[in-house]
Specification:
- The structure holds 2 protein chains of 2 kinds.
- Chain A is α+β, with helices and mostly antiparallel strands.
- Among the domains of chain A are: 1-54 and 253-402, no CATH class; 55-249, no CATH class; 542-683, no CATH class.
- In chain A, strand 16 and strand 17 form a beta hairpin.
- Chain A is elongated and about 105 Å long.
- Chain A starts with a helix and ends with a helix.
- Chain B has a single domain (2-95, 159-222), classed as Rossmann fold (3-Layer(aba) Sandwich), CATH 3.40.50.
- Chain B is built from 7 helices and 10 strands.
- Chain B has a 6-stranded mixed sheet with strand order 6-7-8-3-9-10, with helices on both faces. Chain B has a 4-stranded antiparallel sheet with strand order 2-1-4-5, with helices on one face.
- The chains are: A alpha+beta, B alpha/beta.
- Chain A binds chain B through residues 2-3, 6-7, 9-10, 13-18, 289-290, 292-303, 381-383, 385-387, and chain B through 45, 48-49, 52, 54-55, 74-75, 78-83, 85, 87, 89, 93-98, 102, 106-107, 109-114, 116, 152, 156, 164.
- Magnesium ion binds next to helix 1 of chain B.
Chain lengths: 850, 223
């Protein structure tokens, strides 16, 4: 006991001169800890905010939805709910063109026709305030603020929707339960439900969502109703959700997102561990003399180890604690950055469990990585007091040293454990650790390669400073490995982020750019087709495509009737269930279009299979979800009329193209009698022509909606901007993370470099010459480190885009080279800064100081 | 009693081997004051390292008070050093992060003793540095540092003190003062003292002189 007190007192006193330096090494861990704490706390904040606001998110305790007017059976269900005390609110949502009477401007908007009870929970704030209550008092509309600009309108204008006119009473500022980004995708126009009929837009077959929200008197009622309705969903033709289910779904999505981002935090932690290891290595080298003296004075190797492990553990704890504070700061920033895309208002509060976990994990990782170099202290011989060897000889460890193997195993086990706990899956955790390990191995190998190259490549006729600088890469006490590791890992992280981002963005712009049409008209009814056709032909450059659309559902597959029971019991998973319930908007034609490719079977429009069976082509992913194969018989319910088909081909469809695409394509004659709508795409010369055409069509056919490609491009552009900001932030964060690690790595050889530089100066070298020696060394390190990092990043980026996002890999060469240049500059700067004593001090002073 | 028998130390560097010490045997009774001298490279430091148990010989044994230290583990020898051995070095070897007083306390603390500062203060006063306890090594002159080192060496009341060129980095007058302190402590505490030196004046204050040349003992006489 007394001994322990003495040891800790000695540890404390002995740390006097090294505390700052040791803390700097340990701060490598801080950013990683900060990331983990911020992510975990934020996810917990989000989840609890979600719990508090889940009813506002759904709009009620329970919600029923349908894609067509409620059936009488559904209506009677609502009546019975109403009489049993459930308060109901109705909302009908559909896209439509809105026209401003004063200016004639028109744009596709999302109409929300709501009943007086809406919303049952949460609040809708308006500008000017209090307008929500006035909405129902007349033919009023409340619109999203972005429409003020898009339609060049103002409060007090008249807005036309279909055949009805509304007075714009104000704008909606905050609608509970919808993220800000929703406005960007489809700006909303709220109107009173009782004016819905006046618009005359909900003709048979129009795309609309019908929603009934319920507010129950006691908890549990919603769940019971949901349980009762669930098995009859197809019969009632509705879907049902409760607030709790919504909460569960969203929480799960958040948990997955947090796990994904948590992986970045994990890598940060790992990188921090490396920084700790190289910083502590340098620290250990400075302690050789002291340890040798202690050994002479009778300290056992365990006592010596205890002194320094104690110092490292405490500093590791301080570094981790600093990380926790940093995490709290970041946690405050995240909701600000994400407020637009989150469905709820997140209330930020500290999460003690996340903070504690971050502290412990950080301190443990710091200690584990510090132990590796610290173990070398055990073998410092007291003989070093009489005859001092070179640092690297003193600290050289046997590979098969048992405690060292144990520490290595502990590090590996900790990394895997943390990875598994964070990813929540054994396989992913192991794969992730293996990936990080492989990256480290490759970096270590390229460090060896650089040393080898430096030994081989130096030529006597090179200028002296270059030879000297390059030789430093392989001479004893070189810093090649730690610097390459830190630098390469940093470059790897940042570049991976960039190439993944650029691949994702390339996919968007490709999809938009390769389409030949730039404006699309939909909901064109059969009797409107000739009129719309002639308007388009007159007002646009070209009518690109005209596709008929027929709405239908699956009635039976290979003779097996699709029913509620059948859907509930299918073993094929949620996507199959969704496909069996959904309404398909199918087309018929006799040729393939450019966005499709035949992958199986034959495209043969003239095949007639018997008198009442016609052939169809199915999109391959849907076929996979429903386990459909060539030759299967699918019968369809086409708005009451049965149509029997056989699958004769499968297609791959590029959904990203700005073209009407379909899951199911029929033979032209098979659906001749079915109620049909049309989608038209057209090419116009400029925005002016598009606007004129849209106006002309909406004034004659108010139910025909249209959308301008440039609007979509705009929206995508805005989303891309958000993503870019987020990626920049992450990249900056990774870079910030690399700096303390790099500093720690350089610290290892700092003393040797300073000593050597001073010696050169005593021998007559100018400062510029000494600087050039350093420049040569750090440039070589920077170039190879970044090159290896880039190579790793391309491999990782390719794998991520290929297997996670399932899209093509688009290398961001320019950005990568920029990152590489930045990393090289960073290395040289840190290197020269670390060696600045050489330039500042006189030769004598520097020689004496050590 | 320190007994060295057939001490031999060979260094292997690559394929060539170098014999730094060859078959050295002697015994030193408790309380003696011995000087080891010889030309540079003759093996003095090597011998001292072996006698103090800082290094292991290629052949031969060192027995201190009946314990064969060449057969002990490194940590066993460390404990023995803590209990019985003191050191003074040419380059002082104070721990730079600790004050003079704390440096003197270290051997006592490593043995888990209590109230160590009182005893350490006493020792500092004995070497004439009672008022400099709170100074760090960098704030002391070479001679003062060496006196702190001597105070530290005597902190654990060692049975034997080893000194490698203790005056090598000091001027003649200061060196004399250091030797005065060592001789006085040797007389008062009965500690055996073994000093490696090539200075005539230092060797002259010993009671016995062992001379090495090329790793072999060429002279052993009582003065
Ligand atoms: N680790 C080693 N490896 C190889 N040879 C060594 C080693 N240590 C010492 N030697 C050699 O052993 C011989 C004796 O060295 P030692 O240091 O004991 O001499 P010394 O008498 O103390 O000399 P000085 O008076 O110069 O200090 C020298 O030739 C030296 O080069
Ligand atoms: Mg010597």
């Amino acid at each position: 006991m007394q001994l322990w007190r003495s040891i800790s007192r000695l540890a404390w006193r002995e740390s006097r001169t090294a505390r700052r330096r040791l803390l700097l090494s340990m701060s490598s861990i801080s950013l990683g800890v900060g990331a983990l704490v911020a992510i975990d706390s934020f996810a917990a904040n989000l989840t609890s905010s979600l719990r508090e606001q889940s009813r506002a998110l759904l709009g009620g305790d329970i919600a029923f939805a349908a894609r067509r007017p409620f059936t009488p059976a559904a209506d009677s269900l609502f009546d019975s709910l109403s009489t049993s005390g459930v308060q109901l609110a109705y909302s009908t949502n559909f896209p439509s063109m809105a026209v401003i009477k004063r200016t004639g401007n028109t744009r596709l908007v999302q109409i929300r026709a709501v009943s007086a009870e809406y919303p049952l929970y949460g609040q809708i704030t308006t500008e000017p305030a209090g307008k929500w209550r006035e909405l129902q008092t007349g033919a009023h509309a409340l619109i999203d603020p972005s429409l003020l600009v898009a339609l060049d309108t103002r409060v007090g204008d008249t807005i036309t929707v279909g055949y009805a006119r509304f007075l714009i009473a104000g704008t909606v500022k905050d609608v509970a339960g919808t993220p800000g980004i929703a406005e960007m995708i489809g700006p909303r126009v709220f109107i009173p439900a009782r004016y819905l009929a006046e618009t005359q837009l909900l003709q048979f077959g129009s795309t609309a969502g019908y929603e009934v929200l319920g507010r129950t008197t006691s908890p549990g009622v919603a769940a019971r109703v949901s349980q009762a309705v669930r098995p009859r969903r197809r019969a009632l033709d509705i879907s049902v959700r409760t607030a709790e289910e919504t909460e569960d779904n969203v929480s799960e999505a958040i948990a997955q997102l947090a796990q994904f981002i948590g992986v970045v935090g994990l890598v940060a932690l790992l990188l921090g561990g490396l920084g700790v290891a190289s910083g502590v290595h340098a620290f250990v080298a400075r302690k050789i003399d002291t340890v040798a003296i202690l050994r002479c004075l009778g300290a056992t190797s365990r006592q010596v180890l205890a002194v320094y492990v104690l110092q490292a553990a405490i500093m590791g704890l301080v570094g981790a604690a600093f990380g926790v504070v940093l995490g709290l700061g970041m946690q405050l920033l995240v909701p600000m950055a994400l407020s637009d895309i989150l469905p709820v208002d997140v209330s930020v509060r500290p999460e003690p469990s996340a903070m504690l976990a971050g502290l412990l994990v950080g301190a443990w990782v710091a200690l584990a990585f510090a132990l590796r170099p610290l173990l070398a202290l055990r073998q410092i011989s007291p003989l070093q007091t009489l005859r001092r060897d070179a640092d690297s000889n003193v600290l050289k460890m046997r590979w098969r040293d048992a405690p060292r193997l144990l520490v290595n195993a502990a590090i590996a086990a900790s990394v895997v454990t943390i990875a598994v706990l964070r990813t929540g899956s054994l396989r992913e955790g192991i794969a992730m650790s293996a990936g990080a390990g492989a990256a480290l191995l490759l970096l270590a190998a390229s460090a060896e390669f650089l040393s080898w190259l430096a030994r081989k490549a130096v030529r006597p006729r090179w200028p002296y400073v270059l030879r000297q600088g390059i030789s430093n890469l392989h001479r004893p006490a070189n810093q090649t490995r730690p610097v390459i590791l830190a630098l390469g890992f940093g470059a790897f992280l940042v570049t991976t982020l960039y190439v993944v981002q650029s691949s994702l963005l390339a996919r968007f712009s490709l999809g938009v750019g390769s389409s030949s049409a730039n404006v699309v008209f939909f909901d064109v009814q059969q009797d409107q087709r000739p009129g719309v056709d002639s308007l388009v032909l007159a007002g646009a450059e070209r009518l690109v495509q005209r596709a008929p659309v027929v709405v239908m559902r699956v009635a039976s597959i290979n003779g097996v009737l699709v029913s509620d029971d059948r859907i509930e019991s299918t073993p094929d998973g949620p996507r199959a269930r969704w496909a069996l319930r959904r309404e398909f908007r199918s087309t018929f034609r006799d040729t393939l279009v450019s966005s499709e490719k035949l992958v199986a079977g034959r495209w043969d429009a003239s095949t007639r299979i018997g008198s009442d069976t016609s052939s169809i082509s199915v999109e391959q992913d849907l076929a996979r979800d429903l386990r459909l194969k060539l030759g299967d018989i699918v019968s369809w319910d086409v708005q009451g009329v049965p149509v029997v088909t056989r699958i004769t081909s499968l297609r791959a469809v590029d959904w990203n193209r700005f073209e009407p695409n379909f899951f199911i394509v029929f033979r032209p004659d098979a659906l001749a009698a079915a109620p049909t709508q049309f989608i038209l795409t057209a090419k116009t010369l400029d925005a002016g022509q598009t606007a004129r055409l849209q106006r002309a069509i909406v004034s004659r056919f108010p139910n025909v909606s249209s959308i301008d490609l440039s609007l979509i491009q705009n929206t995508i552009g805005k989303i891309i901007d958000r993503v870019t900001v987020a990626v920049r932030f992450l990249a900056l964060f990774s870079l910030a993370m690399a700096i303390p690690v790099l500093v720690s790595a350089v610290a290892g050889a700092r003393r040797e470099r300073v000593r050597e530089g001073v010696l050169l100066k005593t021998l007559g070298a100018t400062r510029a010459q000494v600087a050039r020696v350093m420049l040569a060394e750090y440039t070589a390190l920077g170039v190879l480190g970044s090159a290896t990092g880039l190579l790793l990043a391309y491999v990782a980026g390719w794998a991520i885009t290929r297997f996670v996002f399932e899209t093509d890999f688009a290398p961001a060469i320019g950005a990568s080279l920029g990152i590489a240049a930045l990393m090289i500059a960073l290395t040289v700067t840190i290197g020269l800064l670390a060696g600045r004593e050489v330039f500042r001090e006189t030769a004598m002073a520097a020689l004496r100081s050590d | 009693m320190l007994v060295a028998t057939n001490l031999t130390k060979e260094y292997q560097s690559g394929s060539s081997s170098l014999t730094a010490l060859r078959d050295v045997s002697f015994s030193i009774p408790q309380g003696d004051l011995v000087a080891i001298s010889g030309p540079s490279g003759s093996g003095k430091t090597t011998l001292l390292g072996l006698l103090a148990g800082l290094d292991t010989p290629t052949r031969g044994t060192v027995v201190l008070d009946g314990d064969d230290i060449t057969a002990m583990s490194e940590d066993g020898r460390a404990r023995l050093r803590g209990a019985k051995v003191g050191f003074v070095f040419q380059s002082f070897q104070l721990i730079p992060a600790l004050t003079a007083l704390e440096n003197v306390q270290v051997p006592l603390e490593l043995r888990g003793e209590r109230d160590v500062s009182v005893r350490a203060q006493e020792l500092l006063s004995r070497v004439g540095l009672g008022k400099r306890g709170s100074h760090f090594p960098a704030q002391l002159s070479g001679g003062e540092q060496q006196r702190v080192a001597i105070a530290r060496a005597f902190a654990n009341s060692p049975r034997i003190l080893f000194a490698d060129e203790p005056t090598g980095n000091l001027d003649g007058v200061t060196g004399e003062m250091i030797m005065d302190t060592v001789v006085e402590l040797n007389r008062e505490s009965g500690t055996t003292v073994i000093i490696v030196t090539h200075e005539q004046t230092v060797a002259a204050r010993a009671r016995r002189l062992i001379r090495l040349t090329d790793g072999a003992m060429v002279e052993d006489r009582t003065l």
